[in-house]
Structure formats: structure tokens, C-alpha cells
Amino acid sequence: MSPKKKNQFPPVAGLNVLEAGAEAAQLRREIKRHDILYHQKDAPEISDAAYDALRKRLENIETAFPALATQDSPTHKVGAKPAREFAKVKHAVPMLSLANAFSAEDVDDFVARVRKFLRLSDDEKLEILAEPKIDGLSCSLRYENGVFTQAATRGDGEEGEDVTANVKTIKSIPQKLPKGVPEILEVRGEIYMTRADFEKLNKEQAKNEDKVFANPRNAAAGSLRQLDPNITAERPLKFFGYALGEISSPIAETQEGIRKKLTQWGFDVPEPEALLDTPEKIVSFHAKTYEARPKIKYDLDGVVYKLNDLEYQRRLGFISRSPRWAVAHKFPAEQAETILRKITVQVGRTGTLTPVAELEPINVGGVMVSRATLHNEDELQRKDVREGDYVIIQRAGDVIPQVVKSLAEKRTRGSKPFVFPDHCPECGSLAVREEGEVARRCTGGLVCPAQAVERLKHFASRSAFDIEGLGDKIIQSFWEEKMIRTPADIFRLEKYAADLKEREGWGELSVKNLLDAIEQRRTISLDRFIYALGIRQVGQATAKKLAQRYGSIDHLLDQMKQCENRESEAFQALLEIDDVGPSVAEDLVDFFSERRNRKAVNDLQRELTIEDYVAAKTRASAVTGKTVVFTGKLVTMGREEAKAQAESLGAKVAGGVSKNTDYVVAGEDAGSKLKKAAELGVKVLSEEEWQALVKA
Ligand code: IVH
After folding, report:
1. How far is the CA of 24 from the centre of ligand 1 (A)?
2. Which of 48, 96, 350, 655 has its C-alpha lying 20 to 30 A from 72's C-alpha?
């Protein structure tokens, strides 16, 4: 049925009860169908106005003929009109993730690193608060003057989605806090679903032929990210508080103190909890929590250790995307046995050939798994995994499942070892392994369709350009249809608008939404832009360092050009950037010296506004803008703390001394760098002189 225009409905007063009953039933079916198209398939067929007109007509009929109103009528759903998409929220304090530890040794290393950073002597105690790591999704709740005002998802850590209306429906989250809480208070924690609630929900979903979720985490995420808060309200979501975001005044001196305050204010906090101060206690807490898992009502994927002292936390600060003062100790992975049907070889964004096991689907710890990674050629050969073998696979948290081993004893006669291809399965170019590398790589570069497509997927992905609606499958099909071949083509997609509307499952609105989402990303920060290019070995942290050092895209391109001469000052300066060793430097220069890559970047510059790098909040000081090198053993603080302190004051910290260096801070037993400073006439400071300078 094509939607009727508002004024095309005959007056309700002219209907008899039979006519009204038939029309109401028809309208309910119609509205329900549009709800599904809109909320579950993301493929609406009619405009908001036409949809509203249908609802209004149904309401009018139900008001005129109250006997016709049914319990499940869509008119009974109250609340805000669903939004097209969630608004974005910039986090006042970034929402970080946690570094992982997989063994007791990893945890020992964490404790040792912390002690070294803080320069703690062996007899100084270090208290650690341990609590379970909840397998849900993180959320930041903002309270102003004690009243709940906003909830945001983590998103990329800097910017999340506004899910306030949905979070308002979660009963275990207090809407109002007692008197005396800070004027501004952000409580961070995890939204989750218990296993029992998840199973109940799935049964219900299956009965209604709605989407069935793979695990409680996915069910919680799917329930929270509903555009219609009425749907969220029907889902059994819960919340645990475990950290703070922005606060206008401190509420405690310890992590334990934060937990106490949160509990007093009506929040649930993760249990069991313990304060631990020896490696033995840590190991035993982890083991006990792991054993208790079946009895705990919700999924845990490990234990989190946080330094209890908030002053220590402040000093330790953050590295890239996670705090130095906390670590997640993961639980051992779940394993299962299944048959490996076939080995396929995938080609990644930078040409790496990865063998993938196509499996007889199997449930591993609550998640159906049908593919697992075999890592690389050497691993595959070492494990002698063959097509048709029985294999053990394992899955840990959100990590890609992997093949642990093959059960050779169950092998049928006639099976043959897998022969790894020496040509790219996608483009036929030679695939080579450079000396010292584990990966075999396709040499086809951008000629290779697989690499081109993978690069485009990376470009549009969440941490890069974050183009909503331009997911992997859509990129794949746009590429096959030649609509998108290079990143800049994304920003020229509008010329295909008419064709897009004709695609199966697409309508005017979905095309508009996609084009709007693309339009919103025409302005991008320099660090995201660099990351989006997908240069080998250049992740988010390195991209940020590069943006920080070069400031603007033009300066970056100019310096990369100069770097083609490896003897140049520009190349030396590149090597001085923290995180950039010779191998990363080579990959960067190679990337920018490739003609097609330069063209892709130039094309993008025409389509985009690439914002100059804005330095993170730093305090102006005598060392702002100066380049500093630390050498030798420092006494008052660890090397990492010194570096973090210098950067927070706006200084650049370099690894090597050159004539661009402003200060060399020399601790005990400083060696060759001190000599080089003397040769170049660079000013050398003692640790005390440095401290005096930064405090000035
Ligand atoms: S503390 C600065 N405590 O795990 C980050 N996180 O893998 C402070 N998570 O993004 C996080 N349970 O969403 C903390 N008890 C817990 C947690 C927890 C789950 C999540 C959190 C974080 C992710 C990192």
C-alpha cells in the first residue's frame, strides 16, 4: 500500500464501525511494518511526516471508536518521537579502554612498571583495588546539581552517542542524587544484561520472529542503541558504576572511596571487590573470581586492577588510549572442537596474506563461530593444520577466534599438508616474504582489489572517518559497482544518488542519511586523517604523534617529500619522533613517495577540510614549544613520568639529540647523548635544574 497523504483520509465521522475496524487493523499492520523497516532494518520507505499521518489517523479512529482500541496498538507507545540517528556527544574527559594482561607475569610487569614510574622503594606499599570486569558496554552518565542530564556511549573515546532518552528507562540508574554531590559529576560504568534476562529476552524475540542475540553483551548493546526509547524500556538493562569522568570537586581520595560514594548514592558497583597488596593475593583473587563465574548472574571477562590511591593515579596519567594505573586481567579463553572445512587466504589492507579456517559452525562460550584465524604461513606450517582436520578453536572476549591445534590422530588417510600460495589469491601478483618478516605480502599494491577495498573499509571505519552507514558490505558492493574506487570517491557519491535510490532495500531516506553522514565528515582532524590513510605500522597513537609534530597536512606532505632523501634533516627529524623507529619511518616515506598514494591524498584535500592539529590541553610554561631529551637515570621520577610531565607542559620529547634539541636533561650515568649535546652546544640541565625550570 502506498502511504496516503494526510488530507486523503476521509473524515472519521463518516465511517461505520465495520469500516473503522478494518481500517484500524490495516493501519496497525502498516505502522508495525514501517517500525521494523525503520528501527530494525534501517531502511525506511516513507518520510517522517507520512508516518506521523498514519499514526494520527489510527489515533483518531481509536478515539472515535474506543471499543476498537487494542492492547498492542502502536498508539499505546508513549515517549519521544524516535530520532533518525543519535546526536554526538564530545566527552569532557576522554573515555579510555584498558590495557590487557593475560598471565600472572603480565600482572607482575604491570605492578613493576607502576612502581618504577612512581619511583617507589621496595618497602613502600602499593594498594590495588580489584573488581570484576563486566562484559557489557561502557556508558558515561552526567549529573548536574544532582540531576541526571545526559548519558553517552563510549564511541571512539573522544566522542560518543547521546543515549539519554534510552538510559532514562534503566531502573537501576538513579535520576536524582542526594544533596551534597558535586555540581558536575560524571559516573562511568557498564550497562549489561544478566544471563537469565538475556535468555528470556531471546525466547521472546524468537517467538515474535525478531532478532535473536548472540550473547548478553550484544543483547545489551542492541537494546541500548535503539532509536526508539520505548523499545529500550522493555529490555532488562542494568548498570554498574566503576569510575568517574568530569567532576567539579573531588569526592574521595581512593578508588575504594569512589565505590563507597557511588553505593551511598544508589548505584550498583561490581562485586566481589578486594584490596590487594601482594602478587600472591592478586593471583588468588583472579582464580577465585574465575571459579565463581558460573554462580555470578552476569558475564565477566576478567578482573580489573586499579591503583587505589587517586594521587598515584593522577601522577601516572594515561598512555595513548588507556590509563597507566589500571589493567584488565583477562580470563582464560573458551575452547571447543570442530571440523575445519576449508582454508582460505585473505588479503589485508597492507597486502598481508592471512590464512583463515572456515569451520563447521560451533558454539564457543555462548558465541557461534564459523571462522578462525590461522595467523600466518609459519604458524600454519608449524601446527600442520589441514583441510578436513578436527581442530581445537578458542575465543577470548572480543578477540578473533583462533585455531589452537589440529587433532592429527583423528585425521583420515590421504589428507595433504596445506600449500601456502606464493601468488596473491585476489590479483595474481607475486606474494613475497621479506627477510625477517613473518608475513607474506601481495606486491600488487593498489592494483590489488582486495587491498584497495580493505583500505577503503579502514578509511570509513569508526576510528578513522567514522562514516555512519558506510559499512564493510556496502563498501564492497560500491567498489564492485565502480562507484567508489578511491577514498575521495566517497565524497563524490552524490552523483549516484538517483541510482542508489533504486537499490533493493534502499529508499530516498536511506540515501539521504548516507549522504548526510558523508557530508558531516568533510571536516576532519589531522591525526584522524593520517590514521585513515592506512599506512603500514601507523596506528592511532603514531598518527597522533605525527599530527602533533607536523601540525598541518601541508607541512606533513612537504616534510615527507624532503624525507625521500634519507640524508636530509627532515628524515632525521622524523626519526626523532617518539614511536617512530627506522622501520616505521621507511613505511611512511614509502607511502608518500608512491605516486598513486600522493594522488589519493591530493584528491582528498580538494574534498575535505583537514584541520590543523590542536594540542591537547597543556599548561603554558618555560618549556612550551621546546624540544627536550631525557638521558641517564632520573631520581625524583621515572623516565615515563618525566616525559608525560614535559608533554603536559607543551614540550616535545625526542629520543635523540640533534641541533633541534633545546635541552638535554641528564640524570645519573648519562652517556653518549650527553657527549653529543656537548658537541652540538645544546644546553644540558641537571634534574634539579629541570624541575626548577618547569616550576618557574
Ligand atoms: S575501569 C579509564 N572497571 O572494560 C578506564 N572498566 O576493556 C577505567 N570495564 O572501557 C575503566 N568492567 O568499559 C573499569 N570494573 C571495571 C570494568 C571496566 C568493565 C570495561 C570498560 C573499559 C573496558 C576496557
Report:
1. 48
2. 48
* Angle 352-354-356 from CA coordinates, rounded to 5°: 160
Q: Are residues 229 and 186 in the same domain?
A: yes
Domain that residue 556 falls in: 525-611
551 shares its domain with 653: no
58 and 189 together in one domain: no
pLDDT tens readout for residues 183-220: 999 999 999 999 999 999 989 988 888 888 878 888 99
- Cα(98) to ligand 1 centroid in Å equals 6
Positive or negative CA dihedral for 109, 112, 113, 114?
Answer: positive
Residues 107 and 150 in one domain: yes
- Which residue out of 128, 140, 156, 190 has the highest number of ligand 1 atoms within 8 Å of its CB and is therefore the one to mutate? 190
Distance from C-alpha of 420 to C-alpha of 376, rounded to nearest angstrom:
10
Is 673 among the domain residues?
A: yes
Domain assignment of residue 548, yes or no:
yes
d(Cα 483, Cα 475) in Å, to the nearest integer? 9
Q: How far is CA 276 from CA 256, 306, 388, 667, in A?
A: 12, 10, 48, 33
Residue type, 289: T
Residue 86 forms part of a structural domain:
no
The C-alpha atoms of residue 597 and residue 451 are separated, in whole angstroms, by 13
Check whether residue 178 and residue 261 sit in a common domain.
Answer: yes
133 belongs to the catalytic site = yes
Model pTM?
0.58
Q: Is the CB of 134 under 6 A from ligand 1?
A: yes
